[in-house]
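Aim 2 progress. For G-protein coupled receptors family 1 profile domain-containing protein, the working sequence is reproduced below.
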Amino acid sequence: MTTTPEYEDYGDETCDIYSTVKFGQIFNTVFFSIVVALSVFGNSLVIAVLVKYENLKSITNAFILNLTISDLLFTAGLPFWVYYYVQDKWTLGETACKTVNFIFYVGFYSSGFLLILMTIHCYIAVDLGHDGKRNGYSVRSRRSRMTLTSVTSGEEMSV
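Predicted structure tokens for this construct:
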């Protein structure tokens, strides 16, 4: 089989997987490091402001505090992923692998769950009015507000 002059053999320079993997290691390391630094700084600042200046018995502030904590849990797993990308293998043992993944995914899924709860709360506040009444029936009773607050904050609050 002969080749035409337009399609000469250029070698394997376009399929050099080593340089692609090396770029991914460097990019992920830098990107995750920036995300960790900004996340720790920003979420710590939010916690400091909430604790010092805000009423933590407010359901909105409870949502924000819990969302901040779940973001920090998510962030706690990222340095281990950086370590994994740099080493190109997991050397910390199976227990550490399971623990890091558990913390990472708890932070990831709890953030999504809290955003869903915040959306439901916003819907109730906007669509049903501040008192949560539609057609004379109370949608947000004291008991349901206390339950929602307790679930999201981890402690019982008076509403």
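The longest helix spans residues 17-53. This observation will guide construct design in the next reporting period.
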